[in-house]
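Consider the following assembly input.
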Amino acid sequence: MAQNPTGMNGQNAGQAVLSVRNVSMNFGGLRALSEVDVDVRQGEVVALIGPNGAGKTTFFNCITGIYTPSEGEITAYPKSGKPKRADGIRINGMRTNLVCELGMARTFQNIRLFPSMTALENVMIGRHCRTSTGILGAVLRGPGTRREEQEVVDKSFEMLTKVGLEKLANEYARNLPYGAQRRLEIARALATEPFLLLLDEPAAGMNPQETEELKQMVIRIREEFKVSVLLIEHDMKMVMSLSDRIYVMEYGRIISTGTPKEVSEDPQVIRAYLGEDSDA
Amino acid sequence: MEYFLQLFFGGLSRGSVYALIALGYTMVYGIIELINFAHGEIYMIGAFMGLIVAGVLTTLGWPVLSILAIALVVSVLYSAAYGYTVEKIAYKPLRSAPRLAPLISAIGMSILLQNYIMLAQTPDFLPFPRLIPELAFMDAVSNYLGTSDLFIIATSLVVMIALTFFIKFTRMGKAMRATAQNRKMAMLVGVNVDQVISVTFIIGSSLAAVGGVLIAAHVGQINFAIGFLAGIKAFTAAVLGGIGSIPGAVLGGLVLGWAESFATGYISSDYEDVFAFLLLVVILIFRPAGLLGKQRAQKV
Amino acid sequence: MERANIIQNPIQNPIQNVVRHVVRHVKQALVAAVWLSFLTLPIMVIRVDTVEKTVTWRWMHLAYMAVGSFVLALAWYAMMERRNKSQAKKELETVERVSALAGMLADPRITRPLMAFGLLVAVAFPWFFSLYQTNILVSALIYVVLGLGLNITVGLAGLLDLGYVAFYAVGAYTYALLNHHFHLGFWAVLPLGAVMGAFFGILLGFPVLRLRGDYLAIVTLGFGQIIRLVLENWSAFSYGPSGISNIDRPGLFGISYSVEQATTYMYYIMLALVLLTIFVTARLKDSRIGRAWLALREDEIACQAMGIDNTRAKLMAFSLGATLAALMGVVFAAKTTFINPASFTFMESAMILAIVVLGGMGSVLGVILGAFLLMLLPEYLRAFSEYRMLIFGATMVLIMVFRPEGLVRAKRKVYTINVEAAG
């Protein structure tokens, strides 16, 4: 059950892409996150689980710059790009768009697509930070701009193909079925060429078959794009079979961490979480 | 000192009227997060209703104070009906539309109402009859506190206390507060949200009408365009106090009234309206939550 | 009895069904008409003169109002029903499945000749029509550009700018003052005006653009008012409410020309500027920048999370809109040769907004149509000109309720995919 289906684990293990140390987040008097430590290493799929309201999405928001954590250090280690530094880059409170440009792209728990744009255009937005046409270039539309534009279209279409939405490329995002919208969010995030993909409850609202397809898709994507994945998920079956390591969060604290097997056997976790939830 | 007191009470009465109008903005914003752009026009219609009632009754030779009372009542009833109708036509169909849609609709409604009054009545300024007599016992202080100022301050105070009681203690008041906190939740526990919204518009419009009649009687003339400036200023007051907060609207109204009064009194009267707009811009840029409002965390 | 019958056979009685609908609408409309008549009664009927102490009763107005509101209410309820039905069907509509008319408008085989014909008519216009007509058309063309400019800010980027006219004023006063003090000519100031517009756009935009939609609207309204009030009160700088007159018309290689020729010249200048604006906005709309604006309009948080610098994108849209407004300000000053602050009131901003809203936010063709409709109809239907603003206001409400996409729905481009590269 805890075996890694791709056998990727161990290849680049140890090389961190994201390290979160001692992060706390206070909202007024409320402590949403408390001294959280999380590491994601190259090529890993790491899951963050926990009951509703445990602070998982708040944690995502801290990593992606939507909130600035009250305490602690968040460090990213981009594998390429201009500001490549071995000691990593501190991203506490960095602007959300810069975090994305750095190579950490996310999806949202309550799907946030651009509803009146087509599926393809949604993915093309992901290419924005990897392209450079300015106002003048867009107006003059010289050969360079046209080349870049065609490349954006082609790359975006390729991403749609990866998530199986190529037939729906020209449909408005708001008209897509629910499962397709979730996959479109993943394609959009992939288009930004991330080294770390942050998925916020990607399987929410999906039936078992869709969930299984999603799982296979994540495995394929991780393989093909050499991307690490940090995901929040409630579907235990998916989490247990997909992730290399799991962090369990409750009341803003990490109460347990380890391989799926270790976590599922941790009495603290069973008491706090799994004890109430029979599908695990 | 006398000059200071004159400015102080002038600002207080002016600020009370801003507060009356601001309450309408703040209550509506609290419940449906809409800047009711047409609210200033409701205030203007209130003033016009006052003028019409007063005009008719004056020709009939009624005593002044009874005219004032009737004008206030009729104007409140009619403005409330206007507020209710405006909501039903321009905002209710747009409950689930993107945020800017009801705002644009509100701007359209504001233009519509202004031009309706202009065409049905007149584009010119109309003199408003003197409904507030100079009371004899006010002579001693009349250099800095006129009877009409006192009247405005007292009426506003009474109305605001009544509103506070309504919101704190009645069933509808509680439903309003619940809806303001979380509309979906309120709906789930059986609050009739449509009704709450209607009542909010009715109350807000009534308050604006009181302000309209009082200020018209004080200033002595009105026209179809007075709602725009008064509306913007009252909105400034609402934002200043923290939009959505009822005590904030009152505080904001008073602060704005005094700021204007002292600024025009001690600095220059040329830029009277610029002060209000500057205040609006500065507040929104630097402290959009206002004096009493809370900064809310963004939901993602 | 009858009712039971309908319930039993709802499908087999289509006529009865229609009758039932009509009866229901008529009842609703009657109630609405009675209510509206009651509501408008005092203001429509009574007119008091407080100085002469006379009261005029205009009972005929009540009758007009009753009939008018009945008809309008009937239309309202009928349209409401259609709206509810089409909202239920919305799921089915996609990019490809559009109406036949829209399909025709997208086909280059039809649009190219149409555009060529339109251009021909536009170029030939001053030779066939009177000076008066040409003059009106110049005004309309100015509003086309203003509408297209505001369309970038509001329609594409979703930033509701209620002080747009301030940038128009910046351009107009830039030319008027430079011409008055330094005798600078139109052609010298035109680019300068654009730069001033962009500068003011960035200057005003920078502090306000992090505000949320409706607050942004109010702040821009405030800025617009401040600029107008300063122009009105700072007489030493702007000559106050009396304004600046004797502004030079555009120069033509030093050739002097008559007033009639001036109008024709102005017309061609405007035509060129309109074409340029259409070209620029159309290109931007389908570019990387335009897509970023749309994403911004749709969902700010997701937009920034996908790596778009929101502030930069907003500033671009805001200052580009401002640039076009300022350009038009320069043209306006040169056309009328006289300006004062009264031309730059909030109502002007609202009118330009109405053009964008009516035409269709985000649609270039829609905005052009909107500008022509709103500017030309009142000119030619003189009887309506009094009711112009009333109708503008009503239109804005009706469009928002019944057709939020405006006359012409902004269509998304269907991209062609280079399959080999994608393979």
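Residues 121 and 156 of chain A are 8 Å apart (CA to CA). Ask yourself how this observation constrains the way the partners meet.
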